[in-house]
Automatic annotation (TrEMBL):
This protein's name: HTH cro/C1-type domain-containing protein
InterPro entries: Cro/C1-type_HTH (IPR001387), Lambda_DNA-bd_dom_sf (IPR010982)
Organism: Hyunsoonleella aestuarii
Domain HTH cro/C1-type: 4-58
Listed Gene3D superfamilies: lambda repressor-like DNA-binding domains
Pfam families linked to this entry: HTH_3
UniProt xrefs under SMART domains: HTH_XRE
Amino acid sequence: MNRIKEVLEEKGIKQTWLAEKLGKSYNMVNSYVQNRRQPSLEDLYKIAEILNISPKELLVENE
């Protein structure tokens, strides 16, 4: 599970903008946001860099 959706909402960023910056399709980014797919570690770090946050902030810990 990831927190990409929450972080985008907090920062007021659209999925289309993130998809463009990441070089991925909107559908791929949307599947990350909806937690249907998980980004690779490489993509997770890229997303964190683009959003100017720590990669840890994108992850949800399992309890």
